[in-house]
Amino acid sequence: MNWCHYGDSGNVLMTGVALPGSRMEDFSHIGKVLLEIPMGVSGDTHFVEAGELKKRPGMDIFVNDNILKNIPMGAAVTIDESSTYEVEDGEVELIFEASGAYSIVISKWPFLEWRFTFEN
What we know:
Layout: E1 2-6, E2 12-17, E3 34-37, E4 46-49, E5 52-55, E6 62-64, E7 67-69, E8 76-79, E9 83-86, E10 91-93, E11 101-107, E12 114-119
């Protein structure tokens, strides 16, 4: 039996494998929220909502020239691993003074991270 421990926001904090014949009740002394899961589950790919395991959804972001659209409200946009901005209206206009390639990462729980390289 495989299990996961998850946090209040549904993030998978830890996974493990129990001995054959174990039951979830056998782990009640641990004092953590545990859920039986299939093999291969991790916090990178799944989350827990209302006690149910779900795949983390992708973001349906699209690029129109230098504008990123359909970004979830409250998402964090990180540029070149140094500057982070919060999205307030669902889109971001990319304007850079220097030409070059910029690494863009957009994150918002429980979505999978969205990565893009913008060339100016």
